């Protein structure tokens, strides 16, 4: 089931939640709507589900206009952040609920219903918990049951609103991996809302990045992370260092550091900002060459990646760098030590890029 969002806009009082959104989601894709709070992603999800009405625009499922159809008629499954399970019902009864309330001519027999529920319990690895109540389950288990309940009615589209937002970090990571595997085994067009960059990059086939009711970029996780179209996307997707400088004699001057100017970026003496991710900073203990001098303020050497907090000696700006444990040991770094920094990869933006 493909989904097309055509020229959709939505305003709440004087607040523009969405402005002229156009989006095509292919059959079987798992797409993440990613952005900060208030960026419009949940509003779009609810409009796709029929839980919210757009001021203008259309929602198309497989070439058929669903804009005026009810949520029930759209045959979508919706999974909420806080599960929305029925507390007085067992796990089995929660999953069976959507099938039991169908009109009699569409309602499965008792044996067929039981078979369907047990099939879904097996799918979400919860067979042994069929007779428990939601209060007897962990957060991760409740979310699996909420997903099984949504799948019970065999929806054409699965919509998930911050599905793991209420869970702790380890459980979220486990469920992300499980959802990806489930999606591969149970092909269905899925759209999920999140403000967690790592979650979107880890799970989605494609990511749609929202900001202030508009789409900033859409692409695979690799495309949006490695080739951000503007400063907002670069800054939103992961940690980043900002280096203020200017273009001079064909170079970007960042204090004592001079970098090549990317093609078609900046004019002579124009102010620019270079965006550099912590893992793209080379750290050296030897002076000389084209480096920025910095002092190490703090070292966090837990795990395979060593995180450094540094201060530029020329400007006083703070910098974060990430190096491997092997490099850290080779350099024999200490707090308060002077080191020399140089970016391995960087992206340069001009003030006009911030107007996108």
Explained architecture:
It is elongated and about 80 Å long. Helix content is 26%, strand content 34%. It has a six-stranded mixed sheet with strand order 6-7-8-3-9-10, with helices on both faces. Strands 13-12-11-14-20 form a five-stranded antiparallel sheet. A five-stranded antiparallel sheet has the order 15-19-16-17-18. The longest helix has 17 residues, at 169-185. The protein has helices at 41-49, 71-74, 91-100, 110-123, 139-152, 169-185, 197-203, 221-226, 231-236, 325-331, and strands spanning 3-12, 15-25, 30-34, 56-61, 64-65, 76-79, 157-161, 189-194, 206-211, 214-219, 241-248, 251-254, 257-260, 271-276, 281-284, 292-300, 305-312, 318-324, 338-343, 347-349. α3 runs parallel beside α5 (139-152) and α4 (110-123) crosses α5 (139-152).
Distance between the termini: 32 Å
Oligomer: single chain
Arrangement of strands in the largest sheet: 6-7-8-3-9-10
Helix/strand structural class: alpha+beta
- Computed over alpha carbons, the radius of gyration is 25 Å
Q: Please report which band the strand proportion falls in: under 5%, 5-15%, 15-25%, 25-35%, 35-45% or over 45%.
A: 25-35%
Mean pLDDT: 89
Strand count, sense and closure of the main sheet?
6 strands, mixed
Number of helices: 10
Shape: elongated
Which range best describes the helical content: under 10%, 10-25%, 25-40%, 40-55%, 55-70% or over 70%?
Answer: 25-40%
Tell me how many strands there are: 20
Q: Write the H/E string, N to C.
A: EEEHEEHEHHHEHEHEEHHEEEEEEEEHEE
Residue stretches low in confidence (pLDDT < 50, at least 5 long) are: none
